[in-house]
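Work Package 3 (structural annotation) set out to generate three-dimensional models for the target panel prioritized at the project kickoff. During this period the team completed the workflow that converts sequence records into discrete structure tokens, so that structures can be stored uniformly alongside our sequence database. As a representative example, we reproduce one entry of 247 residues exactly as it appears in the project archive.
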Amino acid sequence: MIKLCNVSKTYPNGNVALQDINIEIEKGEFVFFVGPSGAGKSTLAKLLLREEVPTSGEILVNGVNIVKLRRHQIPYYRRGIGVVFQDFRLLPEKTVYENVAFAMQVVEAPRREILRQVPAVLHLVGLSHKSRSKPSQLSGGEQQRVGLARAIVNNPPVLLADEPTGNLDPETSWEIMRLLVEINRRGTTVIMATHARDIVDTMKKRVVALEGGRIVRDEKQGSYGCEETKFLEDREITSLKKGFGLL
């Protein structure tokens, strides 16, 4: 379904974000992208959304090289990808119902379909009773569930989640993950960039680890890995030693 072939990305300032990325993601997979800040996860997401184009290489989605899409084709391509953001990005002046419906209005869905589909996805994410509320009246977890409903209301084959639990407490994070698992169970391919070690280690899904713009690990039932933890532990130990005058 998604195939990256020898993909590299270097920005105009000389920053090398990705180097020789080769990966295939099958229809219906659930894939975690992990790695320290600056590893290339955000750039990878932008490439899949066609917000950026690679310096070299091909990105095939259902056999189509999206690198070669013309400008007018990009909005139609993006209709096939739902996106969930860390910071929710809801429209503050609109109600929960209107925020979700807006995603269907953008693609010119018939009013009859909007009236049918929006209540269905709000029920799925457990927010039917909040349909008339504004984002400011919701908790962080509820806002993220609205964002999730908006991302899936058009039934996209791919859901791209960029740190969807980053601003949430642990209990609420697991609520969001249960929804993502259910969406994946229904056939949607889920690609999630995250730093949430406990979630990755518990779920045992496919894990692709990035470091310095390269894929350093790709495991079918993987874990977050210990590279970042070791770095943080070493730094904390060094800090403590300095505090006690041992260094």
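The CA atoms of residues 57 and 214 lie 14 Å apart.
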